[in-house]
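Final report, Chapter 2: Outcomes

The project's central promise was a pipeline that accepts a single protein chain and returns its three-dimensional structure in a standardized token representation, suitable for archiving and comparison. That pipeline is now operational. To close this chapter, we reproduce one record exactly as it appears in the project archive, with the input sequence first and the structure output second.
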Amino acid sequence: MHKNLIVLAVSAALVSNVLPTAQAASWKAGDWDLGLGGNVNTYYTVTTCDADKLGTGGGTMAGLACLDSDTGTFADANTHSVSNGLLPASLNFSAKTKQEGYDLSGNVNVYYGVASSQGGANGDALDFSSVDARQVYMTVGNEKMGTVKAGRDFGLFGFDAVIGDMSLQGTGASFASAGPGHTTLGGLGYGYVYTDRLAQINWTSPKKNGVEATLGVFNPLDGQESNGKSTGDGGQPGLHGKISYDVDNGNGVKTHLSASALNQKVKLSNGQKPSIQGTDVFARVDINKASLAGGYFQGEGMDTLGIGGIVFPGFSSTTGEAEKAKGYMAQASYKLNKTKLGVNYAQSKQTNLTKVKNDKVTLGAYHSLTDNLTLVGEVSQQKSELDGKGTDKSGTVAVGAMFSF
């Protein structure tokens, strides 16, 4: 694993993960409805790192759990950290009104790291936590025309798998545990890829009979070449689309189905213009106190973690050939009074340029102490098998809490 790819992976993890905007407090100001909400979460995490098991030198998803991002080295024993989980802390503000028959809104959502940012000579000493304005967008629409969104928000591809992961309230797979960054990974790199935060203009249709569709143009992403260079944007925007179906039978059974796709050209240093493209499907069924969820993705020009390739390159610098990735996640949970118990299994593969398989299993317990405070305990095991190199293994035990407001 080249050092610059590890640095890119660290950068990706620091800005990973998604929190659906939920405003807990609202008030009127003239014709405006204002909202404010957010969350604070913190976890004590112990990650098992055994040098004898890091057969690839820690350069895979399972190995990167043991990275010390302060020093660039890999831990060879258990590491202990106090940091965010899959979500960073957040502060979300919205302003809504109705003018000339149009529903208007503006949203600014800012995310915060609990652990200090990297860069200080002594790790956390005298460092500052990171602040990231991930969502800054406006919307305009009505029941007839649907809704137009413009600004910076999460992408469509892979979004439902992220927010459907039970570890959205916890940690899932650890990342850089010896020098923790902004977040952990949840199932990123295992059962789904990072949806990313992208500048975009999209249109969502009015919801009819439970069906809703979104189409949009997105600021193009850079890909990663095997020579370590970033690609150009290929001279065109990214095209993203999603369709979803929701039904509530009224007898305790709720169903959500969705499918999304993306396509975007990139320009390699040799002048070739291959494409980043992908499709994914997701389903969730809630049956009274039980919930079942699953998703599948496949793509080209991406690795198992990121669109465009982050840990491993998305494209060959010589042939222009694209990496091929695919993966799935399966999850089951059950509520016992105020406690939800769940299990999540996820697997991903790269099958072309760098052949690697990642597996993760997570067991979790989530207890609602109050309506706004959830106590969390999770145990995860990760394994990566890199063809011709070896196997990385790591494990994580995390306990903590999420407070939403």
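Archive annotation: The chain has one domain: 3-404.
This record, like all others produced under the grant, will remain available to the consortium after the project formally closes.
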